[in-house]
Specification:
Strand content: 15-25%
Oligomer: single chain
Number of strands: 17
Radius of gyration: 22 Å
Number of helices: 11
Strand order of the largest sheet: 11-17-16-15-14-13-12
Helix content: 25-40%
Order of helices and strands: HHHEEEEEEEEEEHEHHHHHEEEEEEHH
Largest sheet: 7 strands, antiparallel
Length: 423
C-alpha cells in the first residue's frame, strides 16, 4: 500500500467518541502527511501584528521544510512570502526575527523590497524582467491583530472566522501592543497530542495548581450553561449549577460594559471557538497572585476586570486576553514525536519593563503550566507508542478534544480526495 492508502485505512478505523488509531499519532507516514499535505491546506496561526510593529520588521513562521517571511511594508501592510530567493532558491532571512530596510539574499545579493518586488539582480542577460521574479507570496490574513497564513495556492474560506474573532479581539488593540516575552518550548510528543491536551481541562485539577487558582476549570468543556444543556443526558455529567448562576450574573455585567458576546463554539464546521469567562478566586489577571501583571491596561479598560477572553483555533493555536496583557500560543510539528510550542506575552506598547510590569509576574502561571503540559503530552505519547494502546473513550468533559479530532479527520479525508489518492 502507498503512504496515502495507509493514511486512508487508518482514518477508516477511526471511531466517534474515541481517540485516534495509534499510527496517526506516532507514525512517520502520518507526520509527513500532516506537514506536507494536511497542514498546508488550512489556515495556521503564525504570530501577531506586534511581532512586526514597524516597517521592515520581519518574523519567520516555519512548518517542516517551509519557511515563511512575515514582514511589514513601508505602507504599513503586513505581507507573507516564501523565504526562498527567486534566483537559485537560497534562504533569504536566516534569523527568526529582525528588522531590515530590504530583503537581501546573502548568496548572490539579489535584493527585494518589503513588498516582495525584485529590486536588484546583477549581470542578468538581456531581456530579463525583474517584475516576473518577485518573491512568491503566501496567503495571509490579519484577524484583529492575529496573523494567519495558508500555504495552499487555493486557501479555504476564512471570512466567518475572521469576522467572529475580530469582532471580539479588536478591543484589545494589538496594533498598540508589544511583545514583552516569547518562549519556544519543544515538547517530546506528537503535535496532535499537544493540541488535544489543550482542548480539555479534565486533567487540570490534578496537574495545574497555578493555572486553576486564577483561571478555574469551567468553560473548557464543562460548566457553561451551553455545556449543561448539551450534556444533560450524559452519564457522569458534572453538576455546575453554582457556576451557571455565577456566570449568568457576570454576563449581565459584561453586557453593561459592552464586553459580552454569545459563546461561539466551532459553528457550522468552522474552526474557531470564542468565550469570555470569569477569572477564579477574585483574580483580575492570569498571574500567581491574581493581580494585574502590567499596570498599563489594554484597550477600553480603565480599571482591572475579572474576566478574560479565550480564543481557540483549529488546528494550532489558543489565546487568552486579559485586561492588562495577552498571551498567545502556537504549535508546529517538528518530528513525529516533537512539537514546537511558542508562547508570546503582549503588553501595552507604552508599558516599561521593571516599572509597569515584571517579566516573572507576567509569565509565571503559563510557564509553569507549559512545563506541566509538556510532561503530560510526553507520557501520553510514550503510552500510545506501546503495544498496549487501544483507542479510548472520551469523557463528558472532553467534547472539545473530539471537536479537534473531527477537524483533523475531516480535513485529512478532504486532503486525500484532493490528491486523488484516497485509497
Amino acid at each position: 500500500m502507498s503512504a496515502f492508502e495507509n493514511i486512508a485505512a487508518l482514518l477508516h478505523k477511526e471511531r466517534p467518541g474515541h481517540t485516534l488509531p495509534q499510527m496517526l499519532y506516532v507514525g512517520q507516514e502520518a507526520f509527513e502527511f500532516d506537514t506536507q499535505v494536511l497542514l498546508k491546506s488550512v489556515w495556521l496561526y503564525a504570530c501577531t501584528v506586534a511581532h512586526v510593529k514597524k516597517p521592515g520588521d520581519f518574523f519567520l513562521f516555519e512548518l517542516a521544510n517551509n519557511s515563511i517571511i512575515i514582514v511589514r511594508g513601508r505602507d504599513g501592510e503586513v505581507r507573507a512570502f516564501h523565504n526562498s530567493c527567486r534566483h537559485r532558491g537560497a534562504r533569504i532571512c536566516q534569523e527568526q526575527q529582525g528588522s531590515t530596510a530590504r530583503l537581501m539574499c546573502p548568496y548572490h545579493i539579489w535584493t527585494y523590497g518589503l513588498d516582495g518586488r525584485l529590486l536588484a539582480a546583477r549581470n542578468m542577460p538581456e531581456g530579463f524582467d525583474k517584475s516576473q521574479h518577485g518573491l512568491l507570496p503566501v496567503a495571509i490574513e490579519n484577524i484583529g491583530g492575529l496573523l494567519f497564513v495558508c500555504l495552499s495556492d487555493d486557501p479555504p474560506p476564512i471570512d466567518r472566522a475572521k469576522a467572529d474573532i475580530a469582532a471580539q479581539v479588536a478591543i484589545y488593540d494589538l496594533e498598540h501592543c508589544k511583545v514583552a516575552v516569547q518562549d519556544d518550548l519543544v515538547e517530546d510528543a506528537n503535535w496532535k497530542l499537544v493540541m488535544e491536551n489543550n482542548r480539555e481541562c479534565y486533567h487540570c485539577d490534578s496537574n495545574h495548581p497555578e493555572l486553576i487558582a486564577c483561571l478555574g476549570t469551567n468553560g473548557f468543556g464543562k460548566g457553561l450553561p451551553e455545556d449543561l444543556a448539551e450534556s444533560a443526558a450524559a452519564v457522569g455529567a458534572v453538576d455546575d449549577t453554582k457556576f451557571v448562576e455565577v456566570i449568568g450574573a457576570e454576563r449581565e455585567e459584561w453586557k453593561r460594559l459592552g464586553l459580552y458576546h454569545d459563546l461561539i463554539e466551532f459553528p457550522d464546521d468552522w474552526w474557531h471557538r470564542i468565550a469570555r469567562l470569569p477569572l477564579a478566586n477574585g483574580a483580575v489577571s492570569q498571574t500567581m497572585d491574581g493581580k494585574v501583571a502590567s499596570t498599563k491596561l489594554l484597550g477600553p479598560f480603565t480599571e482591572p476586570n475579572a474576566s478574560s477572553l479565550s480564543v481557540w483555533t483549529q488546528p494550532n493555536s489558543w489565546h487568552h486576553f486579559c485586561c492588562d496583557h495577552i498571551v498567545t500560543f502556537s504549535l508546529t510539528p517538528v518530528a513525529a514525536d516533537r512539537t514546537l510550542l511558542r508562547t508570546t506575552w503582549l503588553v501595552c506598547e507604552d508599558a516599561v519593563e521593571g516599572v509597569d510590569y515584571d517579566v516573572e509576574a507576567l509569565t509565571a502561571v503559563w510557564r509553569a503550566t507549559n512545563i506541566q503540559d509538556a510532561w503530560l503530552s510526553h507520557i501520553n505519547h510514550r503510552g500510545i507508542s506501546g503495544d498496549g494502546y487501544r483507542p479510548g473513550p472520551y469523557s463528558v468533559e472532553e467534547k472539545l478534544v473530539e471537536r479537534f479530532k473531527e477537524f483533523y479527520t475531516s480535513r485529512a479525508r478532504a486532503a486525500l480526495v484532493r490528491t486523488g489518492q484516497a485509497g
